[in-house]
Amino acid sequence: MPILVQDVIDMLTAPVETTVPDSVDQLIHGDPHAVVRGIAVTFMATQQALEQASRLGANLIISHEGLFYRHRHSTPILVEEPVYAAKKRFIEERDLAVYRFHDGVHRYRPDGIMEGLIRQLGWESFVNEHLSAASIVHLPRSTAGEIAAHVKQSLGIGCLRTVGDLTTACERVGLLAGCRGGGDLAIPLFEKHKLDLILYGEGPEWETPEYVRDAVGMGQGKALLVLGHLESEQPGMKLFADRLRGMLPDVPVFFIPVNPVFQVV
Amino acid sequence: MPILVQDVIDMLTAPVETTVPDSVDQLIHGDPHAVVRGIAVTFMATQQALEQASRLGANLIISHEGLFYRHRHSTPILVEEPVYAAKKRFIEERDLAVYRFHDGVHRYRPDGIMEGLIRQLGWESFVNEHLSAASIVHLPRSTAGEIAAHVKQSLGIGCLRTVGDLTTACERVGLLAGCRGGGDLAIPLFEKHKLDLILYGEGPEWETPEYVRDAVGMGQGKALLVLGHLESEQPGMKLFADRLRGMLPDVPVFFIPVNPVFQVV
């Protein structure tokens, strides 16, 4: 029996326990009744990822982030813009279905993106607590610098931005994936969960980083590692692709990794 | 005649042509009628900057960004937090006045922060147009890599994040200081002003950077340099301090530079 785009969407969303009001998850392009010939899972449906998916014969792309450079697809600003137009034309010509799967995978329990990050770091046995937007791990005592080196190696990150003294001894570590590094979410975790170190994907530069700088200036041993948005969430989409492959043995499922968006010079 | 805190605030705000609704500019702490013994100007009133200001004998701190790690001082979340409490206690014990001067300096014409950035880059003679949130410069033809090297050297930046091919020839460049790197502001500039390159302080990672990646993937010669929020705005506060010194010859005016908040490992 052929698998339709809507069948796959139903399968993805079945384990989502709580609905997200005003969710960004949607079939951005394509026909829900189209037969799925192959699925490409990616963190970010870049032009290059779409081309690779198409070459591989996938006609359903499941992307964590959106197509057009902003969180809400419903309010595009770029309609008259040639990059936007060319990307849209490519999708239409190849008749690709593109499903944004963002809020749903974050609502898996545990959060599917966080679970992938923790596995990639090899920290499954150190998990202390999963909160709704963060996870707390209790690592064997090591320095912030040693943890930074481990993070770089296990996630394949070339350059990591850090705040604080890298010789700081750390045990209790907070993890926030994606854009959850803002002060409102991250700062209270330090005190509430007695954290030595936070790792996050992305956040405003003068919120959590400046808090950590001030804390260190007051003699408190705290530190911060900033992984990058993509770098912190891509492992979760890879884990999701692996699981989807197991659930759909008759459909080719590809994971398309996306390179870091930044070079550092 | 003694200069009061309020006199200085009146002097700063006099050139502001348009008022900002719901502005963040305010006397965060201190008595507007206190006599000013010295002024310390800084991008960011970190704990260390406050200590240095106090040692120098300044009792009025003028800071571009806020004290407590979030844009709106009016909605603090950190009252029970020891770093917050210690910083507040330090300010109270030293009887410091702290004035946040953010929206006002951005509303100078030209934007005082942008003017400082352009001067520090030595690009005054290349300015093409000042827009409300960005400036357009027309540089002698050079590669994105050559411009990156110039930016690093003139702003004292150790590591710069870039997107695109550094051999791309660039002439038309858009500048966005601070947190104005988001897609809504930055992306339309490329097409509207026929830009080859954008430099911004800070912005969401999967907006403008991913747009530039896609444009490059389609064969368009575009590039992006991400300076850092602090790195892009500090020169403007230095310029402002220099001008304030000229306006207040009888009051010591210090500029307190703040180190980059991130190390890169």
From TrEMBL, chains A, B:
A divalent metal cation 1 binds at H229, E233. A divalent metal cation 2 binds at H64. Keywords: Metal-binding. GO terms for cellular component: cytoplasm. It comes from the Bacteria. The keyword Metal-binding applies. SUPFAM superfamilies: NIF3 (NGG1p interacting factor 3)-like. InterPro entries: DUF34/NIF3 (IPR002678), DUF34/NIF3_sf (IPR036069). GO terms for molecular function: metal ion binding. The keyword Ribosomal protein does not apply. Belongs to the GTP cyclohydrolase I type 2/NIF3 family. This is GTP cyclohydrolase 1 type 2 homolog. It comes from Cohnella endophytica.
